[in-house]
Amino acid sequence: MLERAARERFYGNMVWVVDGTRLQRDYPRFNRGKDDLRRTNIQGHFLLAFPDDCFPTMWLDSSALVIFDFRGVDKGQPPDEFRDTLWCLLPGRAERSAVVVGMSREEFVKVAPSRPQLLAVQQIVTGFAQRIRELRAADAFEARRFVGMPGGRGPRRRYPRF
Description:
Distance between the termini: 35 Å
Shape: globular
Strand order of the largest sheet: 1-4-5-6-3-2
Radius of gyration: 19 Å
Helix content: 25-40%
Order of helices and strands: HEHEEEHEEHH
Largest sheet: 6 strands, mixed
């Protein structure tokens, strides 16, 4: 991990591409944890409360974008939408939730050489953090409206809605 952090400091704007099939437990971990990916209002963008349930621990605190490739080299596997997608774990957190972006291989190959940054990481994470704070504030305001109302059921939980 020290070497990873040293490389991230040295190179600055970089992306890690990780073979998610290198260790036998990595794809099964992702496969179990992927059900916790919460869709957002941006297609292909997800929030994940417990990224350690999905991704290897050594990559969770990376300061660079980490892309997990779970397809591996075995071409004899049946098509699998989740294996065929590149899963990008963005650095930082949006109000304690990890931000994960699913990207096709074709999109990665097309976009990577043509942009100074693959994804606008800081803008994406900051935008989701702001939206989560707004939703929490709206829910708190709505909860105060129901306090003391006879027969009031209270507000329905909508966190986070996008």
